[in-house]
Recover the amino acids of this structure.
């Protein structure tokens, strides 16, 4: 029996889920315009452990969303995860944030494209199959009318970029699942359990979130 605590703080959604053998049994989350991760995260963790009727010593591992995403949100989540791993002497599992987001889309055909807002018309994106297998690595890109033009399958877009991307992504095979806005720790449960079974852990001391920032660096004219 394996209990894994999953922490997702890469976006405005502060989310914590407890999983037993890969299935979510409890989840607490809140998405607010103003980030409340610093105030909410540890409260959610303690409440979930208490409500599940277990102790921290029953945990087999801690899983954290690794990014890309909010710098502050990722730092808070990773710091909390590392602290728990150090204190409990258990392994740390890192899960791709965009894969977590894509996992919220339940479709049977086409491709899933999770996108998270970066800045201006820039997004962090990746491409997954309906089985959530990665078809293109995470990258930062500027969205234009030519984005994804070489993909002829039905494309399902998820994430918090619909409002700014819909005016450019207008082809008939483009579908925006606007109800799926942020990743949730609930979808981390299966992914983290699979990594746990393979002993796919990261170094607690040296692990850093995947910020994927400063990709559009320019040289000063001065």
């Amino acid at each position: 029996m394996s209990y894994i605590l999953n922490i997702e703080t890469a976006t405005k959604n502060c989310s914590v889920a407890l999983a037993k053998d890969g299935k979510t049994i409890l989840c607490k989350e809140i998405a607010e315009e103003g980030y409340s991760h610093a105030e909410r995260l540890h409260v959610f963790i303690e409440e979930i452990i208490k409500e599940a009727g277990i102790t921290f010593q029953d945990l087999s591992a801690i899983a954290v969303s690794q990014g890309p995403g909010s710098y502050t949100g990722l730092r808070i989540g990773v710091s909390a995860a590392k602290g728990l791993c150090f204190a409990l002497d258990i392994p740390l599992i890192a899960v791709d944030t965009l894969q977590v987001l894509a996992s919220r889309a339940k479709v049977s055909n086409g491709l899933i494209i999770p996108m998270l807002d970066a800045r201006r018309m820039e997004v962090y994106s990746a491409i997954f199959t309906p089985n959530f297998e990665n078809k293109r690595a995470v990258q930062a890109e500027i969205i234009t009318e030519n984005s994804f033009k070489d993909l002829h399958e039905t494309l399902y877009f998820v994430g918090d970029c619909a409002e700014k991307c819909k005016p450019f992504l207008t082809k008939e095979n483009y579908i925006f699942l606007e109800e799926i806005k942020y990743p949730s720790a609930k979808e981390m449960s299966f992914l983290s359990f699979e990594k746990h079974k393979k002993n796919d852990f990261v170094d607690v001391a040296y692990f850093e979130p995947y910020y994927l920032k400063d990709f559009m660096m320019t040289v000063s004219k001065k």
